[in-house]
């Protein structure tokens, strides 16, 4: 088991190195330069700026400099927010994104899974159809429409919730619903189909034949089995949701990390692009590893086996 | 099972309560008698340090915290750290400023040495300031220092004593007072900059102020909060008790927050502007932006013909575009100088209306076209490539122009969108036939626009060459008499409009919704674009 985890960590490091290298190459391939925006800066001013930030050096030297700094845990100063380091930016912004993400996951998962199970148990009946209509709307209507809609009706028109900002629990409700609605919809659909599949298994028939009560069948046999495929998707889903979403954070003025992924690229803020990508990459790899380990505990059929077939 | 469900629900509620506990502190109840202005910023200010601030938001915060020799306020240049008018040597090259008694927020006096240090720091290549050109263009020795060939001792800024600052210019610059009202020319304290280095002005603790406001809170990406600087020399001019500036990047959200009273002012973009205008709740201000069409005779030969160029200018139905498509009360432009620019007493446009040609005349356009075609000996115009910035209002402009040119001039314009990054490269290299060019002056004087079109200026993107024009503009650059100077520039403007390589289309306006309770709050055509320094409120709000 430890051997397996060590091996996984090894491959993770290589994955992240490849990720950074590709990001570095791609971001330098984007046309334009960090300081050549709409302002017509005189050449001398531009030169001084590039020299200051080391952008006048050959790419390969810049690359090794960045890699060296990353190894030291130093992500460098942002080119746009000149007095802030990328480490500071991530440290300040991530907690907001993480909180919004966790709340949305809780909201989306609990409601989504419950609806999915209910729909499957009422297969082809009214409840099933209603659930699937909700799911289709949730999947197909973009976040920013749902967000704008909630903000306008519940914030401006009926003034039940604050319009925007992040100053207490009440402020988090609308963005949580807006962000969680898609999780709710996708999870409801997945849970429904996975439950339907489990319902047709022989062991469910056996359980029914044994005369077990409905709650026991649902709790001990159906949910435990149908939730397995959902757990697989949780790693990437959590990584994406927890590291911030540009659209919802933008609409509700949440000081999260999401905007830096988008703005870094728009402003060609190289340290921010590299830093946020690295952060996201590490986060994703770690969560995936966690999910794989948890999976072994939940599903006894899956044990981590080495090449010789021995159990580790 | 039910017990399990109950436990689960309890845990769920506990988690949520826990989270509610860890969210950031709420703003707290405002005290009843306080006048608190709430005004949003579109993004986190990139840099408050005067030498490194060169965007609207940073400069807006800069003008609250710092004060240079003069300050632009409500259409005038008012005294700041300077007391009275500067003394100017006869040749116009040496300017001597006398400083008033003023203090930094930590009680230290503001001295001429603070200015000398700040201005030299601005020009220093080590500072790598994006605003360095503001000083290198005007102050003697600053260019050489910035390029690495000179030294800081040779920069023409000198503190004669604590209260006197002497500045030597490259050439006579009658509008130098306007130039130095820009935020980059604010004083900074050497000891504080040295103490904090890179982190100077990164947060409220790492700086001292001499402006009307002090920054009391800067929560990154969340909110800034200002309170009056008790040490400010003109403390009684500051009327509000507090200013709260939340960072709201989405404009629709700003409008929604204005609706619920969470903001006292919002900019109105796109549909909102039209909607608020219809309801009579919008106010429009000239924002300094002008839209021109650049005609390049080197890549599209018919543009070498004056009649053809004029035909293009007359074929654009400016009024119709503004009323039917743009829907904001912009001004159809039949001249180059933006109406926001100051003249002698009033605005330049008030004093020199400059209606150099009709805003639309299709008959005349057709006539001129025919004349031009005859002179060139061709039957019709070849297809024309029309470039425009991809984004904002430019694409709808391009389509409208395409339609106008097709209908009146029977020429097919091929539309090519270009990115902001490409735009400068394209226009500087002359790789275009026609280009829609949104442009704004750098400083509040017609010279900012006029000097662009002098023969050989690197930003003269149509390669305009007219000796008479050059003579007039250069003459205007060298004289102190404002009235004469403005007259010369009006004459020069008439010349360039006669030649018509740059076709004016419209002068833009920006729409705002401003709470009735707030007074003395001005959107300006300059950078920074909002001036709330001396705003007041009729009554305090809960």
Order of helices and strands of chain A: HHHHHHHHHHHHH
Number of helices of chain B: 18
Radius of gyration based on Cα positions of chain A: 24 Å
Choose one word for the global shape of chain A. Answer: globular
SSE class of chain B: alpha+beta
Poorly predicted runs of chain B are 17-31
CATH class of the largest domain in chain B: Alpha Beta
Strand content of chain A: under 5%
Biggest sheet statistics of chain B:
7 strands, mixed
Can you tell me the CATH architecture of the largest domain in chain B?
Answer: Roll
The shape of chain B, in one word, is globular
Oligomer type: heterodimer
Q: DSSP helix count of chain A?
A: 13
What would you say this structure looks like, in words?
The complex is a heterodimer of chains A (312) and B (542). Chain A has helices at residues 2-29, 43-52, 59-71, 86-121, 126-140, 143-157, 169-199, 202-209, 214-226, 228-242, 246-251, 258-266, 270-298. Chain A has 312 residues and is an all-alpha fold. In chain A, helix 5 (126-140) crosses helix 7 (169-199). Residues 306-312 of chain A have low confidence and may be disordered. Chain B is α+β, with helices and mostly antiparallel strands and 542 residues long. In chain B, strands 11, 12, 13, 14, 15, 16 and 17 form a seven-stranded mixed β-sheet that branches. In chain B, strands 1-10-9-8 form a four-stranded mixed β-sheet, with no helix packed on it. Chain B starts with a helix and ends in a 5-residue tail after the last strand. Chains A and B meet through helix 2, helix 4, helix 6, helix 7 and helix 9 of A and helix 1, helix 5, helix 8 and helix 15 of B.
């Amino acid at each position: 088991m430890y051997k397996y985890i060590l091996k996984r960590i090894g491959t993770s490091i290589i994955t992240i190195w490849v990720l950074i290298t590709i990001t570095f190459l791609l971001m330098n391939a984007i046309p334009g330069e960090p300081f050549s925006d709409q302002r017509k800066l005189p050449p001398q001013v531009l030169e001084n700026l590039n020299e200051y930030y080391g952008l006048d050096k050959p790419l390969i030297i810049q690359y090794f400099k960045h890699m060296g700094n990353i190894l030291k845990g130093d992500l460098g100063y942002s080119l746009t927010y000149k007095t802030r380091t990328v480490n500071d930016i991530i440290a300040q912004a991530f907690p907001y994104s993480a909180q919004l993400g966790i709340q949305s996951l809780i909201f989306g998962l609990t409601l989504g899974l419950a609806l999915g199970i209910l729909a499957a148990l009422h297969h082809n009946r009214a409840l099933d159809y209603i659930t699937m209509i909700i799911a289709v709307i949730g999947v197909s209507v973009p976040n920013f429409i749902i967000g704008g809609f909630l903000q306008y009706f519940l914030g401006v028109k009926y003034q039940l919730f604050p319009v925007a900002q992040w100053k207490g629990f009440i402020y988090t409700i609308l963005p949580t619903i807006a962000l969680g609605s898609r999780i709710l919809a996708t999870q409801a659909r997945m849970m429904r189909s996975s439950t339907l599949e489990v319902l047709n298994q022989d062991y469910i028939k056996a359980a029914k034949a044994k005369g077990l009560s409905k709650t026991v069948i649902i709790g001990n046999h159906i949910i435990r089995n149908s939730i397995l495929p959902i757990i697989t998707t949780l790693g990437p889903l959590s990584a994406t949701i927890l590291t911030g979403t540009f659209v919802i954070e933008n609409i509700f003025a949440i000081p999260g990390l999401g905007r830096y992924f988008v703005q870094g690229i728009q402003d060609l803020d190289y340290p921010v692009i590299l830093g946020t990508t690295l952060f996201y990459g590490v986060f994703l790899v770690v969560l995936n590893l966690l999910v794989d380990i948890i999976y072994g505990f939940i599903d006894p059929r899956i044990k981590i086996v080495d090449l010789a077939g021995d159990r580790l | 099972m039910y017990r399990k469900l109950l436990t689960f629900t309890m845990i769920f509620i506990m988690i949520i309560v826990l989270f509610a506990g860890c969210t950031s502190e709420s703003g707290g109840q405002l005290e009843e008698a306080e006048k608190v202005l709430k005004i949003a910023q579109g993004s986190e200010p990139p840099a408050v340090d005067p030498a490194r601030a060169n965007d609207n938001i940073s400069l807006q915060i800069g003008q609250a915290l710092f004060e240079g020799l003069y300050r632009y306020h409500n259409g005038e240049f008012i005294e700041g750290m300077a007391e009275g008018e500067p003394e100017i040597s006869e040749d116009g090259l040496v300017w001597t400023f006398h400083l008033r008694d003023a203090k930094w927020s930590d009680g230290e006096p503001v001295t001429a040495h603070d200015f000398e240090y700040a201005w030299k720091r601005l020009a220093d290549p080590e500072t790598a300031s994006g605003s360095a050109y503001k000083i290198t263009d005007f102050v003697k020795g600053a260019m050489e220092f910035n390029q690495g060939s000179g030294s800081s001792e040779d920069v023409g800024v000198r503190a004669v004593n604590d209260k006197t600052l002497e500045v030597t210019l490259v050439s006579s610059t009658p509008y130098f007072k306007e130039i130095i009202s820009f935020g980059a020319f604010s004083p900074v304290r050497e000891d504080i900059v040295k103490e904090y280095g890179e982190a100077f002005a990164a947060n409220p603790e790492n700086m001292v102020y001499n402006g009307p406001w002090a920054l009391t809170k800067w929560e990154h990406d969340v909110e800034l909060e200002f309170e009056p600087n008790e040490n400010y020399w003109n403390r009684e001019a500051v009327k509000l008790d507090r200013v709260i500036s939340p960072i709201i990047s989405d404009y629709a959200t700003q409008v929604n927050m204005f609706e619920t009273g969470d903001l006292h002012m919002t900019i109105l973009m796109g549909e909102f502007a039209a909607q608020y205008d219809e309801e009579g709740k919008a106010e429009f201000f000239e924002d300094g932006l002008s839209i021109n069409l650049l005609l390049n005779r080197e890549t599209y030969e018919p543009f070498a013909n004056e009649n053809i160029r004029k035909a293009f200018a007359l074929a654009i139905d400016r009024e119709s575009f503004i009323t039917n498509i743009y829907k904001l009360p912009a001004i159809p432009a039949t001249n180059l100088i933006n109406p926001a620019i100051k003249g002698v007493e009033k605005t330049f446009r008030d004093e020199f209306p400059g209606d150099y040609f009709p805003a639309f005349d299709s008959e005349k356009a057709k006539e001129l076209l025919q004349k031009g075609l005859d002179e060139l000996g061709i039957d019709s115009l070849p297809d024309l490539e029309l470039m425009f910035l991809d984004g904002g209002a430019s694409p709808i402009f391009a389509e409208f122009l395409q339609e106008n040119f097709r209908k009146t001039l029977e020429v097919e314009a091929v539309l090519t969108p270009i990115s902001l990054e490409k735009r400068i490269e394209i226009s500087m290299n002359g790789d275009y036939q026609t280009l829609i060019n949104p442009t704004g002056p750098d400083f509040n004087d017609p010279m900012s626009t006029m000097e662009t079109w002098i023969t050989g200026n690197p930003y003269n993107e149509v390669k305009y060459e007219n000796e008479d024009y050059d003579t007039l503009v250069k003459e205007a650059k060298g004289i102190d008499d404002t009235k004469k100077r403005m007259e010369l520039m009006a004459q020069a403007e008439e010349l360039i409009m006669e030649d018509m390589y740059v076709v004016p289309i419209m002068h833009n306006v920006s729409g705002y919704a401003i709470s009735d309770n707030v007074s003395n709050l001005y959107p300006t055509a300059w950078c920074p674009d909002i001036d709330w320094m001396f705003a007041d409120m009729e009554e305090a709000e809960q």
